Structures are given as C-alpha cells and as structure tokens.
Amino acid sequence: MIARPGASTLRGIFDFIRVDKLPLFSNWAVDFNMFFTTAHPVGTSFNNARKIDSVLANGLEAIPGGSGIMAILASRNLRRGLAMGLPSGQGVATAFGIAPMTAAQLTSGLSAAEVAILNGNGSILLHKTPLWYYVLREAMVLRNGDVLGPVGGRIVAETFVRMLKRDRNSFMNVPGFAPSLSSSVPGTFTIADMLEFSGVLTQ
C-alpha cells in the first residue's frame, strides 16, 4: 500500500479496477468503521447509505472512460441485461413464487416523465420490466428503499449461497459447523461482527 493524501475520486476507483497491478493507495482503503456500528467508532462521522431506488447519483451519469450512452450506468446495465437475455423482473418473481409488482406499484411516486417512458410502446416496460430496474423499484416501493425487496434480496442471497457451496473450504462444507463468537456459544451475527472477527477494523 502506498501512502497518498486526500480522498479518492470516482475516476481513480475505475482506474483501480481496470489496470492490472495498480498500487493500492492508502486513501483508497475502505474504513468500515464509517459504515457499520462497531466497537471502534471514528469520531462523529458516519456514512449513511442512500435509499435504494431508481434515482442514480450524478457521478454515475458520466462514468470515467465511457462515451455517449455507455458513459451512463443505467444504459450500461440495461443493455447488458438485454444482451445476456436476462428475464424480466416479473418473470423472475413468478419463477420464485413471488407475486410480481403491479403497474400501479411500479409507477408509484415516480415523476410524470418517468411514468411516460414506462407507459410508452404499449406499456411493455410495465409488464416486462428489465430485472435491474425492477429490483430498484421493488426495494423502494415495498421496503421504502431501506433494503432489497423479495426478488432482489433472494438473488443476492442465492448468489452468496452458491459461492459458499462451491468453495470446498467454506463453512457450509464443514460437517457439524456452528458459527459462534466464542468457543461454545452460538449466536446472532451482524456484518459488524464479521468485520470485527476478520480484523479489518481500525484498532
């Protein structure tokens, strides 16, 4: 790690994930004390996440290294989903046995301009909603943007479970394993507990 003053920029982050063996500058390391309630608070500063919704941060409308519509995160995600043949949000919900959101729910609280886009072309986007957009709207409409909804949450959970099942060294492949913060007492754990255990927090 190379010491470097000041905060990293969005361009710096994109350079880091694109360039092989780019050095990790000290100001690019994540301080998890700023994101979770831990035993090592950092002053009074705390970074609260924004709501999960379909409104993107301004910086994601001009992704470094992109040009034209490919510089906009929403365009990239929608085009990638189409190219990969991802099912619609309603299709995934039905496959999971979850009642899909209605057109009224999908448009709830949106601006007139956004509703007009969703209603265009025979309202196809309201009946076969791109999965990425559906997950964002589901979180806001059904969970007030605080957490993912049932479809988005299950996708994330099943992704992690599949990764753990395929890793022969993961706890899911250790017979009789029961997680605990002590040697003998199983309990309830949070992300903060995991970070404390892993030792990544500022001591």
Give descriptors for this structure:
203 residues; mainly alpha; 43% helix
How would you describe this structure to a colleague?
The chain has 203 residues and is mainly α. It has one domain. The chain is 43% helix and 0% strand. The chain is built from eight helices and no strands. The mean pLDDT is 82.
General form: globular
Tell how many strands the DSSP assignment holds: 0
Give the helix tally.
8
- List low-confidence stretches: none
Distance between the termini: 18 Å
Succession of helices and strands: HHHHHHHH
Structural class: mainly alpha
Quick one: biggest sheet?
Answer: none
Indicate the percent of residues in helices: 40-55%
- Taken together, the total number of domains comes to 1
| Share in β-strands | under 5%
Estimate the mean pLDDT confidence: 82
Rg from alpha-carbon coordinates? 21 Å
Question: Helices, strands, pairings?
Answer:
Layout: H1 10-18, H2 73-83, H3 89-96, H4 103-107, H5 112-127, H6 131-143, H7 150-166, H8 191-198
